[in-house]
Amino acid sequence: MAGRKTIVFSLILSLMAAANAVPFDFYYLILMWPGAYCEDSDNGCCVPKYGYPAEDFFVDDFQTFNVSINKPITRCNGSPFDANKLDPIENSINHYWSNIKCPPTDGVNSWKSAWNSYGVCSGLKQLDYFKAALNLRKQADVLGALAAQGIEPDYKLYSTEMIRWAVSQKLGVTPGLQCKDGPFGKKQLYQVYLCVDTDAKTFIECPKMPKLSCPDAVVFHPFYTWMLNATAAAAFDSRILLPTETALN
Ligand SMILES: *[C@@H]1O[C@H](CO)[C@@H](O)[C@H](O)[C@H]1NC(C)=O
Ligand SMILES: *[C@@H]1O[C@H](CO)[C@@H](O)[C@H](O)[C@H]1NC(C)=O
Asked: Where is the signal peptide (predicted)?
């Protein structure tokens, strides 16, 4: 009898634990503009080992954040990263969650680090965590939202207020903007922070914005895949993919 009670009791405990599985309040979806990275990086930017990325904003990170402690929640218990589980979204993750660091990388380390830090805290399966971030990036279509208001990566200076407004026109929520050193002593648009509900689907107004900084006017630097150094990658792999925009799965 006592044994059965114990079983029922531990079942209740584990159900409670499951209901409570996400120790966070919302996600930060952090998108980055590769043109700014290339411009500001001392080592330039390189074609990743698997081939060319998209000429668009990339996912930089997808963080689980806890408002009450005002910190990202990291390194929960969860299954270890398994790169093979990303096979179904290989094309899309290669193009839109790309790592253009030099020397060239295969991207796996950035995905592994995102999963081990935040993904394991999300309560999602590994594939679903990455799919969610990639879908949100696509849904946000920041490049399209900016273009709709005449804001293009054409090296011109744009008002940060206009950039925020353009994104909010499309998404109904206000983004955070982070800048990087740019040409001629100006700052340039580098990252866009968007907040997402724990459902990993819905953009929300940020309950808390990290300390980000951009001056009133910023350069929107161009990005073309020809800016990426391909010499370094060719040494690794001769099967470099061609740039493509038809990379959605
Ligand atoms: C945030 O962290 C605190 C302290 O670890 C925890 O008590 C709280 O339950 C967390 N918030 C959520 C939504 O889980
Ligand atoms: C491209 O990469 C190669 C190999 O790492 C390096 O020797 C070369 O200087 C780089 N080119 C540019 C333009 O940075």
From this structure: 1-21
Whether residue 134 lies inside any domain: the answer is yes
Residue 214: inside a domain, yes or no? yes
Q: Which atom of ligand 1 is nearest to the CA of 22?
A: 14
The residue whose CA is least distant from atom 3 of ligand 2 is 232
Most ligand 2 atoms within 8 A of CB, residue of 102, 231, 236 to mutate: 231
| DSSP codes joined into one string, the chain | -HHHHHHHHHHHHHHHHHHT----SEEEEEEE-HHHHHHH-TT--B--TT----SSPEEEEEEEEETTTTEE----S-PPP-GGGGGGGHHHHHHHS----SS---SHHHHHHHHHHTGGGTTS-HHHHHHHHHHHHHHH-HHHHHHTTT--SSS-EEEHHHHHHHHHHHHSSPPEEEEEE-GGG-EEEEEEEEEE-TTSS-EE--SS-------SEEE-----GGGSB-HHHHTT-S-PPPP-S----
Residue 66 sits in a domain whose CATH number is: 3.90.730.10
User: Which residues form the domain of 111?
Assistant: 23-234
Any ligand 2 atom below 6 A from CB of 222: no
User: Is residue 56, in this structure, part of any structural domain at all?
Assistant: yes
60-96 residue pLDDT tens: 999 999 999 999 999 998 899 999 999 999 999 999 9
Residue nearest to atom 5 of ligand 1 (CA): 69
